[in-house]
Backbone:
């Protein structure tokens, strides 16, 4: 039987043979220097925004970064397994309530509760993915929908722990005596940037190649011992851990958690954000999805009943743009392959 290290070596060799030598992005019609400069310019702009913007914009962007990470978790599931989850709001809520409960019960700050939330999200994702490892497509989507539907009742039912309808407040700061708004903003931005960087490295790793092979060439992957069920479990566990991390950041940024923030539609909006970002795993793609589900409703609140119509029109527009043959180069430059 081939060892795990041997499997990864085979995957790397097969990936190189199938894709040929790794070529710079410029060979695909883009310019790597321009992309890097654009990324650095975007990061520089986001870093200086709190120094010149008002408090409401800083607060909105803090939530935007957290939601961008949640959108990224859904995109990871789509890109690496080809599956769709409607119930990722469950794992987002798990992370948010972990931060709140640890503060209320033990008095620890987000410095302790954030890694705990990430670990619990991964464990919860594995617990869900293992019994449903043979489900795919619409069947897995319906199974995740059950999580989203049961979530509000679970939060209300465990009132002594979760605070019931009123929820819980998160008051302790990461850095005492520092600006609350700034530390919530920069923590969310830093975690989002680090996750995007880690995902870019993971894509080039043997493990990432193995997951992609299990999706694109399942029979070839099974021939070297990489089964589709193993791949789905691994991807769902990773995706759930990222979603829980996003929830922890969202709870810390908003200073409060309640059942109203994690309804069935929360999971739908995360899926919408992933579609808007073209399931991309780059920082720009994640920010686009996060901004669409965070800033658009905020600044279009005066539109009233027109908001769902604008959402639908935006989704149609994104679908048309993503499938337009003349714009494929733009999409390829946008997404991290």
Residues:
């Amino acid at each position: 039987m081939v060892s795990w290290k041997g499997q990864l070596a085979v995957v790397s060799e097969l990936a190189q043979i199938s894709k040929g030598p790794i070529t710079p992005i410029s060979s695909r019609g883009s310019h790597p220097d321009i992309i890097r400069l654009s990324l650095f310019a975007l990061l520089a702009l986001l870093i200086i925004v709190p120094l010149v913007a008002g408090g409401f914009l800083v607060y909105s962007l803090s939530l935007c970064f957290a939601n961008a990470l949640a959108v990224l978790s859904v995109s990871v599931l789509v890109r690496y397994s080809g599956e769709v989850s409607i119930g990722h709001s469950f794992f987002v809520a798990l992370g948010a309530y972990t931060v709140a409960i640890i503060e209320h019960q033990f008095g620890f700050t987000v410095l302790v509760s954030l890694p705990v939330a990430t670990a619990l999200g991964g464990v919860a994702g594995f617990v869900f993915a293992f019994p449903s490892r043979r489900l795919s497509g619409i069947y897995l989507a319906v199974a995740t929908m059950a999580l989203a539907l049961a979530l509000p009742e679970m939060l209300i039912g465990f009132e002594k722990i979760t605070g019931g309808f009123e929820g819980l407040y998160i008051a302790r700061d990461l850095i005492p005596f520092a600006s609350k708004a700034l530390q919530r903003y920069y923590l969310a931005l830093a975690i989002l940037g680090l996750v995007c960087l880690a995902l870019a490295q993971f894509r080039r790793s043997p493990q990432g190649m193995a997951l992609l092979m299990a999706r694109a060439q399942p029979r070839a992957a099974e021939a070297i011992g990489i089964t589709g069920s193993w791949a789905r479990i691994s991807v769902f566990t990773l995706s759930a851990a990222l979603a829980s991390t996003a929830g922890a950041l969202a709870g810390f940024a908003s200073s409060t958690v309640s059942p109203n923030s994690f309804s069935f539609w929360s999971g739908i909006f995360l899926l919408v954000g992933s579609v808007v970002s073209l399931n991309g795993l780059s920082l720009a793609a994640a920010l686009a999805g996060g901004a669409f589900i965070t800033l658009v409703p905020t600044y279009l609140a005066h539109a009233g009943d027109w908001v769902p119509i604008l959402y639908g029109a935006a989704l149609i527009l994104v679908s048309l743009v993503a499938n337009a043959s003349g714009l494929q180069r733009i999409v390829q430059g946008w997404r991290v392959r």
Observations:
- Residues 13-30 have pLDDT under 50 and may be disordered.
